[in-house]
Design goal:
Elements: E1 16-23, H1 27-47, E2 54-58, E3 69-76, H2 79-83, H3 85-90, H4 93-98, H5 100-103, E4 114-122, E5 142-149, H6 153-164, H7 168-174, E6 181-187, E7 193-200, H8 203-215, H9 217-222, E8 234-242
Antiparallel strand pairs: 1-3, 1-4, 2-3, 2-8, 4-6, 5-7, 5-8, 6-7
Length: 248
């Protein structure tokens, strides 16, 4: 007797992400970086097979960082793709032409003061990023990038487990937080930490979602679970708005 077994699909491979944060000193630098991103970098990523590049600026109500920072989210299939990116861009003539002001900037007139790069590995609970299902105008949207730092590596991993195995990822999904990604930071300046991004049509929607989260019975049960106590040393939120040319 022959027994047929149904094929079981392998789970999706966990993506890697780079979040690059540009620091600019004035409107001129900000415009030069944005021109580079819009006309050179994002189109080059599309040609390289990376469809969803997110470009964000601090939300208008963030008066401390407004006009000073530009965030770029690039999803990657592997670390090798990140390491090979400079070679990929070097072969792209259209990128070199469109990005000339940025690429060939003189030392006396750089397009930014500095940038930092964060490399992340997607959670097992959400191995691939997702475009948010928002319907409101881009200019009104609020994207919340959160960083949860841990006291130690072991304690930080407990918070990761809380998301993946404790049910925090599906809880956010059920409550309609429109997450773009959840990921472990593998290289950055505030380790050990994880980061994730949720999205909302506007600030009022963001506040309503978090109010519902705080009142949710499942969350109130999860947060007092003895297994997951004292696993975050610092929680930081960055409020962002997508640019009109952002894919996400």
């Amino acid at each position: 007797m022959t027994v047929a077994f149904a094929a079981v699909a392998a789970p999706p491979k966990r993506e890697f992400y780079e979040i690059k944060i540009y620091h600019v000193k004035d409107a001129d630098q900000a415009a030069r970086v944005e021109n580079y991103l819009k006309d050179a970098y994002v189109p080059a990523m599309h040609r390289a097979g990376i469809k969803n590049v997110g470009v964000f600026k601090p939300a208008a109500f963030d008066t401390v960082n407004a006009g000073k920072l530009i965030y770029v989210f690039t999803p990657l299939k592997s670390l090798e793709q990140l390491l090979d990116m400079s070679k990929t861009l070097a072969k792209d003539a259209a990128y070199a032409s469109a990005g000339k002001d940025y690429i060939d900037a003189e030392y006396k007139n750089p397009p930014y003061t500095r940038f930092e790069s964060i490399v992340l590995h997607a959670f097992t609970g959400m191995p691939m990023h997702k475009k948010p299902g928002l319907t409101g105008p881009k200019a009104d949207r609020v994207y919340e990038l959160r960083s949860y730092e841990g006291h130690t590596e072991k304690i930080y991993q407990n918070k990761v487990k809380m998301f993946n195995d404790g049910g925090e990822v599906p809880l956010f999904e059920r409550l309609g937080f429109n997450a773009v990604f959840y990921a472990e930071v593998v290289a950055g300046s505030h380790m050990p930490n994880l980061m994730y991004m949720t999205t909302f049509d506007n600030k009022a929607s963001r506040d309503e979602h978090w109010k519902a989260f705080s009142a949710d019975a499942e969350w109130n049960k999860l947060k007092v679970n003895p297994e997951y106590q004292n696993n975050v040393s610092k929680n930081t939120s960055f409020y962002l708005t997508p640019t009109d040319y952002s894919d996400i």
